[in-house]
Amino acid sequence: MILKTYARLFVTDLDRALPLYEKLAGRAADLRFGFEAAELAAVGDLLLIAGPPAATDRYRSTVGPLIVADLDALRELLAAAGAAVTHGPEESATGRFLYAAHPDGAVVEYVEWSTEVRERVLGTG
User: To bridge 106 with a disulfide, which of 14, 95, 102, 122 should be the other Cys (CB 3.0-4.6 Å)?
Assistant: First the structure.
């Protein structure tokens, strides 16, 4: 069900930070987009997040994103396991996403990429 995971890395200036992480990953960013008042870039297994603290602080305590094949099937699995969707699903620049609180207390962001993004990043539709 999980296709890819990212570790979040909060930076102050995406334009300044991104070149170093592209060199470390040995490739250009797969994705770069805005979300609310933040800027994001996915490079390798990192998701760089830049923006004012008011726009980014609420995401610091969450895990993810975890990229999944089917967000609707995931919701059923989460409900059966006693997890609760706390936000979403909503549309985004890359597809659909939701946040879920797991029974163990973890809050996780799950994303189902659009076919275009999935093909570009993973090479599959």
Answer: 102
